[in-house]
Amino acid sequence: MDMMQFQRQTTQLAMTQRMQESLRILQMSNADLSDYLLAQAQDNPCLEVRLPEGTSVAPALPSRGIQNAQDRDAFATVEGQPVSLLAHVEEQIELAFFDPGDRRIALAFAEALEPSGWLGQPVPDIAAAAGVDLDEALAILDRLQAFEPAGLFARSLAECLALQLDDLGLLTWELRTMLDHLPLVAEGKLAELARRCDCELDHIRENLALIRSLNPKPGEAFEHGRTPIQPPDLRVLRGKDGWEVELTRAQLPRIRVEAATTTGDPAADVWLGRAQSQARWLMRAVERRQSTLLRAAACLVRHQAAFLDHGPRALKPLSMEEVAAELELHPSTVSRATATRLIETPRGLIPLRNFFSRSVWSDGPSAPQSQDALMALVGEIIAAENRAKPLSDDAIVKEAKAAGAVLARRTVTKYREALGIPSSYDRKRAAAVAC
């Protein structure tokens, strides 16, 4: 085998450190951008940052480049998130269990809690992990099930509901029997349930109304790492010439570059010159971020104006590549600019990404169509159906065709499941139970 040496010239785009930093700034939320600029202002005497109104800041080192606004807006008054389920339970364990051994077993049960408030592991497994016998573990569990809110540490839906009824003093023999036969409730076999409970059908319906008033997942009232509430990045308003987009500048940090003064020390003057250059670059990077975000949002709103006028059914197929080509940007830049952004519209607070919609080809007169629009159509058809006689997927196909959309039955099934809508059989059964 002969070895050969040759030269080849290629063209590549090298990502400099400033280019990478610029892309990071583009993708930052307003809150992250404020934190980032604050950190930069701590080390840069030429950079002055004014925080958005209503922003609360953790204590930081004093700096001449940081100013805090005094006014607060509506978003600054949002209540704090509730405590976690585990913290709530641990606090009650500290008060209820004085023996260190019992407290250790109780904490083992607490660690097995699911976000719903139910136990996520079998009691024998928890007992084995805690190194105690089953009877001792069950005795601790019995005490834990008296915690607030009622229903915590349940091992099943029936036990969760029974704990809540017992806490209210309403757990009768009939209700206990109904909870033991919840599958009959799910199947809508109320007559069979009345026979087993030895009562009238009307009494079963009254008990069902009471059961429905209970909370099947009491643990969900506590914090589980949910996404914090964020103010919108943009706002869309109707102007003289149609829909107009603007940045919510009240949520944007303001930057000012201060002139570097000479100190007489050559080394210090060089350092100040670099600091001033860095501050100017940061200002330009933030301006590019705002400009790119505004251009991308304006393009999306321009293409999807019908959505703002008429709702999801009017969404048009629109890809990220099409927007990037129109704005003469790379698709990855559009992706970064629109990720996690919220826009305030007359239809509520909407993720900016919702304005993109996948194109779906069909044999209909208006092909191609938006997948989101077709999914919304399926939801509207089902919402308008007779609850006593719900439409099958084949019937939905016919209704969609009458509305100008040609869908396959399997496509209707896929959209229905994506919307969280049960089958026609399950919808009919649920309607019978509700009567």
TrEMBL record:
Sigma factors are initiation factors that promote the attachment of RNA polymerase to specific initiation sites and are then released. Residues 79-258 form the RNA polymerase sigma factor 54 core-binding domain. It comes from Cereibacter ovatus. This is RNA polymerase sigma-54 factor. NCBIfam families: rpoN_sigma (TIGR02395). Gene3D superfamilies: Homeodomain-like, RNA polymerase sigma-54 factor, core-binding domain. One of its GO terms (cellular component) is DNA-directed RNA polymerase complex. It comes from the Bacteria. GO terms for molecular function: DNA binding; DNA-binding transcription activator activity; nucleotidyltransferase activity; sigma factor activity. Residues 273-429 form the RNA polymerase sigma factor 54 DNA-binding domain. Keywords: DNA-binding, DNA-directed RNA polymerase, Nucleotidyltransferase, Sigma factor, Transcription, Transcription regulation, Transferase. InterPro entries: RNA_pol_sigma_54, RNA_pol_sigma_54_core-bd, RNA_pol_sigma_54_DNA-bd, RpoN_core-bd_sf. GO terms for biological process: DNA-templated transcription initiation. The keyword Transferase applies. Belongs to the sigma-54 factor family.
